[in-house]
Specification:
The protein has 205 residues and is α+β, with helices and mostly antiparallel strands. It is built from six helices and five strands. The chain has two domains: 107 residues, PAS domain (Beta-Lactamase); 84 residues. This is PAS domain S-box-containing protein.
Length: 205
């Protein structure tokens, strides 16, 4: 567990830190001091977005007169690897030349953070699949309504033409017209049912 003491100046200058704190950075105390002059903003020079975000959390907590603050942030080590840490800080009553002093306690949460990211990704994938299913369900319902309408219409034509043909059985021309319409409607009905079956089989996998 890392512990550090900082001035709440524009650099968030490190006044003191334990060995675990430096170990998370991959630098020794002397290496860190020499490279970054104990200035946190220099350490995050290549990641200003993170520095600005965490300092905003600290400053907003301070001006709202909160006693503590907390956030998660990445730390890039000397080796280039990134460690995610949980930072918990407290505003002490100490000052140095009028500048407030803060204390931080932080620890590695990389495994937890990665697991949380994987869970979020899985949840997004699930939401996406559920949305696809909802859209498919809506489309299927509309398709079935349309299919039912087409089948009923074609069946009515076939039934109606059959009745007409029976009534005008002795009228060859009328019967031929009825038979022609029955054949065309039957062909359309078979085609529609075949298309519906193909769609259902495709969706079923």
């Amino acid at each position: 567990m890392g512990v550090s003491k900082h001035l709440m100046d524009k650099h968030y200058t490190i006044l003191w830190a334990n060995g675990n704190a430096y170990e998370l950075t991959g630098y020794t105390k002397n290496e860190f001091s020499s490279r970054y002059q104990n200035k946190v903003d220099e350490y995050y020079k290549e990641d200003r977005e993170t520095f600005n975000r965490v300092t905003r959390v600290i400053e907003e907590s301070y001006y709202k007169q909160k006693k503590v603050y907390s956030f998660e942030c990445p730390m890039r080590s000397k080796r280039g690897t990134v460690t995610w840490i949980q930072m918990n800080g407290i505003f002490s009553k100490e000052t140095y030349r009028g500048v407030p002093i803060i204390w931080n306690v932080f620890f590695d949460i990389t495994d937890t953070f990665d697991a949380k990211k994987e869970l979020e990704t899985a949840r997004k994938d699930l939401d996406y699949e559920l949305q696809k299913m909802d859209k498919m369900k809506a489309w299927m319902e509309a398709f079935l309504i349309e299919l039912n309408y087409d089948i009923c219409s074609l069946s009515n034509i076939i039934t109606g033409m059959t009745d007409v043909a029976e009534i005008y059985f002795s009228d060859q021309k009328t019967c031929e017209r009825c038979l022609k319409m029955i054949r065309e409607s039957s062909r359309k009905l078979k085609k529609r049912i075949h298309k519906a079956r193909s769609i259902f089989q495709e969706e079923a996998g």
